[in-house]
Amino acid sequence: MSTARTVIFEAPGGPEVMKLVQRPVGDPGPGEVRIRHHACGLNFIDIYQRSGVYPLPLPHALGMEGAGIVEAVGEGVTHLAAGDRVAYAAAPPGAYCDARVMKAAQVCRLPDSIDFRTGAAMMLQGLTVEYLFNRTVPLKAGDTVLFHAAAGGVGLIACQWARALGIRLIGTAGTDEKCALAREYGAAEVINYEREDFVARVRDLTDGRGVDAVMDSIGKATFEGSLDCLRPVGMMISFGNASGKVPPFDLGILGAKGCLQLTRPTLFMHIAQQEKCQSMAAHLFEMVESGKVKIRIGQEFALEDVAEAHRQMEARTTTGSSVLTV
Ligand code: NDP
Predict the structure, then answer these.
(1) What sequence ranges are listed for the domain Enoyl reductase (ER) (predicted)?
(2) 75, 84, 159, 317: which sits with the fewest CB atoms below 10 Å from its CB?
(3) Does residue 119 sit in the same domain as residue 178?
């Protein structure tokens, strides 16, 4: 049996709780596959898990996406074969490693035109944008969406996806440089929410009407303001908590603010079924291969530097997607 370097943590905490250990990697069982990684993706959800916001049984490995080559497939796996180039986003966490055995259902064959680093960077964030814009609220060309953290990993993909659909995306970001980047990637309007009142600016930009939907991954710091940006019966999509969890609130607020709708989706529910996951991935690959969506890898780290990667993500100094190379 071979071994692989794997990042684990034994107690929730800061980036320092992660450590690199050697672990055995066995053969795949029924429905499983063994993958040798070339790169792994870094995502904000990894920070929620490491810090205990999303608790995991401990000790636990981290990382929810990767790309590499299939080394072996278990019984009953028909969509993959040894030697295939693949990429995936999948639970449970365990992708920060050289090689692993995992369920095959969420593992997708990577088109030859997409390199491993891009494959590792794009799956979790790209599939998220796929469901946000196509499976969450009916959106059509001409609609207006407010998207927070528009220069981040999910954000830059969202800017481009919205542009491709003819949706007017108003992006927020924490610095002027990030705002410029979001605009370059397709945001129709940008707001630096660290120095501007984003609610007032959104009202200005929509002639007082409000936006059709808000896609809010910031959580606590923006939730109430985001509700104030919506038109009557508009849809609040709360899909993350980078600033902390949204505190419990009175549902009556939705009525008082204009009969608003609210949803709290997760990618892992959308991709739980193999067929749907593979079809969402095919859609994402098509968007990338057509050039409508470009994956910007803003940061790259070696596996052993994962703590520094987490520090930078938490310090809000990253833009676009981040990858670990193995
Ligand atoms: P990002 O690259 O977007 O990084 C997070 C960004 O959030 C930061 O760069 C920063 O941008 C902004 N931010 C605002 N306040 C804070 C804060 N207090 N601490 C840290 N960051 C802050 O990350 P990802 O692309 O990986 O993910 C984006 C969001 O989407 C995350 O919240 C993630 O959990 C969520 N997500 C949810 C999914 C789901 O299905 N529900 C799936 C995938 C992602 P700025 O400086 O511009 O404000």
Answers:
(1) 13-324
(2) 75
(3) no
- For residue 158, give the 3-state DSSP assignment: helix
Q: How far is the CA of 34 from the centre of ligand 1 (A)?
A: 30
Which residues have C-beta atoms less than 6 Å from ligand 1? 43-45, 124-125, 128, 149, 151-155, 173-174, 178, 217-218, 221, 239-240, 242-243, 265-267, 313-314, 316, 318
Q: Please tell me the residue having the least CA distance from ligand 1 atom 10.
A: 316
Q: Note down pLDDT in tens along the chain; length 326 residues.
A: 789 999 999 999 999 999 999 999 999 999 999 999 999 999 999 999 999 999 999 999 999 999 999 999 999 999 999 999 999 999 999 999 999 999 999 999 999 999 999 999 999 999 999 999 999 999 999 999 999 999 999 999 999 999 999 999 999 999 999 999 999 999 999 999 999 999 999 999 999 999 999 999 999 999 999 999 999 999 999 999 999 999 999 999 999 999 999 999 999 999 999 999 999 999 999 999 999 999 999 999 999 999 999 999 999 999 999 999 99
Cα(121) to centroid of ligand 1, in Å? 15
The set of residues, in sequence order, having a beta carbon less than 8 Å from that of 112 and lying 6+ positions away, is 85
Closest CA to 191 of 210, 211, 170: 170
Instruction: Please state the atom number of ligand 1 nearest to the C-alpha of residue 318.
Output: 9
| ipTM computed for the complex | 0.99
Domain housing 90: 2-125+268-325
Cα angle 153, 159, 164 (rounded to 5 degrees) comes to 130
CATH number of the domain within which 205 lies: 3.40.50.720
Q: Is residue 132 part of a domain?
A: no
169 and 210 together in one domain: yes
* Boundary-marking domain end, from 264, 292, 313: 264
227 and 196 co-located in one domain: yes
